[in-house]
Specification:
Layout: E1 3-9, H1 16-27, E2 34-40, H2 47-57, E3 61-66, H3 72-82, E4 87-90, H4 102-110, E5 115-123, H5 128-144, E6 153-160, H6 161-168, H7 177-184, E7 188-195, H8 207-221, H9 224-252, H10 261-294, E8 301-304
Parallel strand pairs: 1-2, 1-4, 2-3, 5-7
Antiparallel strand pairs: 3-8, 4-6, 5-6
Helix pairs in contact: 9-10
Bound molecules: uridine-5'-diphosphate and magnesium ion.
Uridine-5'-diphosphate (UDP) is lined by residues 8-10, 12, 41, 69, 71-72, 75, 92-94, 96, 198, 203-205.
């Protein structure tokens, strides 16, 4: 098997056929020895029915049907675990990542790069909020982690089998694949592409999922938020020590006692806020430790036509 294509699907019934046709015609430019693994991540629409129809017509179609929605990163992880190709391409199922770029990626792979990721030049048809949060998220992430996660990249990429095997040895429950692949090293390169708007349907990434994903990325690759808690604590303690000194000085030397409800309530609310934020930050790390300690299976497969994973 030369190439496996992994496509996560969540409510993509209208995109599947078009996606498949475009995928097949661009991969045929490289090889006829390939498989396309569609992972249906608990869609509420007829995505799975579409997949079954497709797999009856085309034996290169592999499907993995989850028992419920487990999330995009988990769906991709499952696809990688079931894949057999020497090279594996991860691509979205909504046609935002153009399949026509894959032969270019493959050419770079043949030149000796283990990772060829797509870097977005422009993003069409996405909300201002999404673009701006994504832009700053990747730049902040780059600042606070010590691994080189490329900015403006999604999971659209071609990776070598070695990377797939290494990813299998990274058992974290909260996947942040683009970070994990950057962490692995090897020879990595990028190609630029224009990200299209999604053809049909709507995004499966509402703000709540984006936030969780961002926190997975930060907690998985950086201790800076924890250090921030410590540093803020030290800073506030220092300031309050100065205030105490001033209050004593004012009382005994200047013989003016500082009074006031305002200063009391402001300072106690301020420290209350800082404490809650700090506990929240620590809580984000603890909840991830908890998940990893439980060590549940990452996903549950209800149907698949892939023999021996
Ligand atoms: N997706 C998934 N599970 C989810 C949400 C999304 O498998 O819970 C898939 C979706 O079908 C698509 C890809 O992940 O192929 C990217 O999701 P989407 O297009 O909704 O995100 P966006 O491009 O808006 O960030
Ligand atoms: Mg999309």
């Amino acid at each position: 098997m030369e190439i496996s294509i992994v496509v996560p699907l969540y409510n993509e019934e209208k995109n599947i056929r078009l996606m498949h046709d475009r995928l097949v015609s661009s991969i045929l430019k490289i090889t006829s020895n390939f498989e396309i693994i569609y992972v249906n991540d608990g869609s509420n629409d007829n995505s799975f029915l579409e997949l079954l129809k497709l797999s009856n017509e085309d034996e290169r179609v592999k499907y993995i049907n989850f028992s419920r929605n487990f999330g995009h990163q988990i769906a991709v992880t499952a696809g990688l675990e079931y894949s057999k190709g020497a090279a594996v391409v991860i691509i979205d199922g909504d046609l935002q990542d153009p399949p026509e770029v894959i032969p270019e990626m493959y050419a770079l792979y043949k030149e000796g790069f283990e990772v060829v990721y797509g870097q977005r030049l422009i993003r069409k048809g996405e909300s201002f909020l999404k673009k701006i949060t994504a832009k700053y998220f990747y730049r902040i992430l780059k600042k606070i982690t010590n691994i080189n996660i490329p900015v403006d990249t999604g999971d659209f990429r071609l990776i070598d089998r070695k990377i797939v095997n290494d990813l299998k040895n990274m058992p974290e429950q909260n996947k942040f694949l683009r970070g994990q692949i950057a962490w692995l090293g090897y020879r990595q390169t990028s190609i630029f592409f224009e990200r299209d708007e999604r053809k049909f349907g709507e995004t499966g990434y509402p703000f709540s999922k984006m936030l969780k994903f961002a926190l997975d990325g930060i907690t998985g690759f950086s201790d800076v938020p924890l250090q921030f808690v410590t540093k803020t604590g030290i800073f506030i303690s220092f300031i309050s020590f100065l205030v105490i000194l001033y209050a004593i000085f004012s009382h005994f030397i200047l013989e003016r006692t500082i009074t006031g409800w305002t200063s009391l309530i402001i300072s106690s609310m301020f420290i209350g806020g800082v404490q809650l934020i700090s506990v929240g930050i620590i809580g984000e790390y603890i909840s991830r430790i908890n998940k990893n300690v439980q060590n549940r299976p990452l996903y549950i497969v209800s149907e698949t036509n892939v023999e021996n994973k």
